[in-house]
Amino acid sequence: MNKKRIYKFKLEDGNFEEIESLGYKKAVKKFQANHTDLKVVLVHHLNKKGEWLITKQDLPMGRKKKLGG
Description:
By secondary structure, the protein is an alpha+beta fold. Helix content is 22%, strand content 38%. The protein is built from 2 helices and 4 strands. Strands 2-1-3-4 form a 4-stranded antiparallel beta sheet, with helices on one face. The protein is globular. 9% of the residues are buried.
């Protein structure tokens, strides 16, 4: 039984990048590793009820000490 979900990240040019992950936080961390220049991204994802949500996520996401902030 696969519990992975698909998260769609909207890039500045309007294209989407899909990442399959177990959770929202892991998906964002995987995305920000490849796109270090972005500061804000829109994330489209399904919740448990099956509804599409759009979340505005500030980047980088994580501990400020570890990220040098």
